[in-house]
Amino acid sequence: MPRIQSGLSDILALAPVIPVLTFDTLDVAVPVARALVKGGLTVLEVTLRTPVGLDAIRAIAKAVPDAVVGAGTVVRPDQYTAVAEAGARFAVSPGYSPALLAIAADGDVPLLPGAITPAESITLLDAGYTMQKFFPAEPAGGVAMLKSMIAPLPEIRFCPTGGIDIAKAPTYLALSNVTCIGGSWVTPADTVAAGDWDRIEALAAEASALSRGRSA
Question: pTM for the full model?
Answer without folding.
Answer: 0.95
